[in-house]
Amino acid sequence: MKLFHIAAIGELNVDIILNRIDSEPEIGKEKFVRDMTVTLGSSTAIFAANAASLGSRVCFVGLVGKDSFGSLVCSSLEAKGVDTRYVKKGETPTGATVCMNYGEDRANLTYQGAMDVMGFEDIAPEVFDECSHIHLSSLFMQSGLLRDIHKILDKASEKGITVSLDTQWDPQEKWKLDYRSVLPKVTVFLPNERELQALTGTKDLDSAVREVVPYLGSVMVVKCGARGSLLVKKDGSRTFLPAFINKKVVDAIGAGDSFNSGFVSAFVKGLPLEECQKAGNLTGAVNTTAAGGTGAFDSLESVKCICRDYFGQTIAL
Q: CA nearest 44: which of 91, 79, 82?
């Protein structure tokens, strides 16, 4: 048996979340914010923390600075049960994202810092011997990881490791990822619909799905926000599952990462893909019941209670 179910490889930063903002920022003017939270950020870290809370054995592979934000990141991951032995500390400062939250939408400003430095050579070789699955996210935030993506995927294939990938949005909107060569090496592809359309240069979801189906390694799940998710298998078959709606959204920060944590946690346990999809929809919805990407994920039992009490559902984890 492997030491870890999942190795999360990717970016680490803190989120400075601003809620109850008077109005949108304007150059030369100062506005008030009524609530502020400083918490663990980054898509990959939110995924890892929530997957650990759901019962998966998770380690993190990343790079932080020798600073207070780096210490906060590591202690926050450890508090959620994530093993941080493969998090390296370097001279480049830890990254930070300022999240200006407006209901179910947000505007972000990110300093990449150490997350843009890490590459394949920063990954301890034993990681590939000690995990069953690798999750990768936010490639366009990490030029080193994007540059070395094939090295990571080829090593995972050599070791018989399954891989999930969520590219996330490209802040520069250049989308320089050759999905035709990358996706065949990815077991579970996890984009949202806007990202998928941008990556493929298509104008609608149906066209984007048809474009990538020939290159899928196994399965793709497209996150469609408040509408739900679309499961697409390698043979082109599709299953749409409507979202579980929270009528009292606190915020939606990290909902996509929480979806990933539910889907992948079910996947590494060998559950049917449709059950994995339902787990993803539920954990995405659970995310919206508390502030920040990890606020609603105290333990598997607490998540099960939220699924039952808020949504009248059971989660197969």
A: 82
